Amino acid sequence: QVQLVESGGGLVQAGGSLRLSCAASGRTFNNYDMGWFRQAPGKEREFVATISWSTGITNYADSVKGRFTISRDNAKNTVYLQMNSLKPEDTAVYYCIAQPVAGPNYWGQGTQVTVSS
User: Fold this and answer.
1) Which residues contact 59 (CB under 8 A, 6 or more apart)?
2) Spatial CB neighbours of 22, under 8 Å, sequence gap ≥ 6
3) Rounded Cα gap, residues 57 and 11, in angstroms
4) Where would I find the beta strands (DSSP E) of 1-117?
5) Candidate from 4-8, 28-32, 50-54, 71-75 with smallest mean pLDDT
6) Which of 51, 92, 94, 100 lies at a 20 to 30 A Cα distance from 19?
7) What span, in angstroms and rounded, lies between the C-alpha atoms of 96 and 79?
8) What pLDDT, in 10s, does the model give residues 46-97?
């Protein structure tokens, strides 16, 4: 069974940085895209970034380009989201997702990121 466990969220001032981690287990992820979504209070869950586990190709939402970096460590089965120059509008619960080529997506439980102004 696939398990995704996020960590690294917290409270930070605007302009600061945080690094989120997503530890994945339960299968090999060579045919998966791994990524991050976020959901702010009263808003729909939105795409943040993805990375191909096999090729390392990345994709970002326009709102985070140039500030966030997604990466993976294949040996540790872990995906990271380095978030720099954080803004109050980045405040949200951040969810890790594993997206296979075919089949259901898997989600983590989420980690809260709060950016104070």
Assistant:
1) 49, 50, 51
2) 4, 5, 6, 34, 36, 78, 79, 80, 81, 96, 108
3) 30
4) 3-7, 10-13, 18-25, 32-39, 46-52, 58-60, 68-73, 78-83, 92-100, 106-107, 111-116
5) 28-32
6) 100
7) 8
8) 999 999 999 999 999 999 999 999 999 989 999 999 999 999 999 999 999 9
- In the sheet that holds 18-25, the strands lie side by side as 3-7, 18-25, 78-83, 68-73
Instruction: Tell which residue, 108, 104, 91, has the closest CA to residue 43.
Output: 91
Instruction: State the residue for tokens 């089949």.
Output: 103
Distance CA 80, CA 56 (A): 12
Q: What is the C-alpha separation between 81 and 69, in angstroms, rounded?
A: 6
- C-beta separation of 47 from 35 below 8 A: yes
- Here the tokens at position 88 are 């109050």
Contact 116, 49 (CB under 8 A): no
- Would you state the structure tokens that stand for residue 66, as one six-digit string? 């140039």
- Residue found under tokens 């795409």: 47
